[in-house]
Design goal:
Helix content is 78%, strand content 0%. Helix 2 packs across helix 3. The radius of gyration is 18 Å and the shape is globular.
Length: 152
């Protein structure tokens, strides 16, 4: 079943169950998908739909961080619930150890020796990590591993 069909089925189920939060999140996701379809001018593939879900999940993570800094735990909790709904449509995220292993291999393969080579390493790993790892976490890990490598 395509991701769009699953989304429609889940929306119907959530509406029947009167799950207002899930209905709200799924409608918002459908709207974002529709906007993306209009923007690029064709039906979205499952990969492109995953990309929309990744963007929405990233927005939720950023909102959670900001709300927690601002002391608005009530809003942060709502965003966390929305994030968990969105993540159920995304592929399972890689663990930190798996991310580090992929980055370390890319650093070895590319011969990167310091932060100046960060762009080269990111170009190698992002296609493999797209959708299965948070870009911000990947970026921080690449910096950390490149700094370790150049200081030793």
């Amino acid at each position: 079943m395509s991701l769009l069909k699953k989304l429609d089925e889940d929306l119907k189920t959530a509406m029947k169950a009167s799950d207002n939060l899930k209905v709200s999140v799924l409608r918002m996701a459908k709207a974002a998908i529709k906007n993306k379809q209009i923007e690029i001018g064709h039906e979205l593939s499952d990969g492109e739909v995953f990309s929309v879900f990744s963007t929405l999940a990233k927005q939720r993570r950023e909102s959670i961080e900001l709300f927690e800094k601002g002391g608005r735990n009530d809003l942060a909790e709502k965003e966390k619930k929305e994030l968990s709904i969105l993540q159920s449509y995304l592929p399972e995220q890689l663990s930190l150890a798996e991310i580090e292993r992929i980055i370390s291999k890319a650093i070895l393969d590319s011969g990167a020796s310091g932060l100046k080579d960060m762009g080269m390493v990111m170009r190698l790993i992002m296609p493999a990590l797209k959708g299965v790892a948070d870009g911000k976490v990947v970026n921080e890990k690449v910096k950390e591993l490149l700094q370790k490598g150049s200081s030793s």
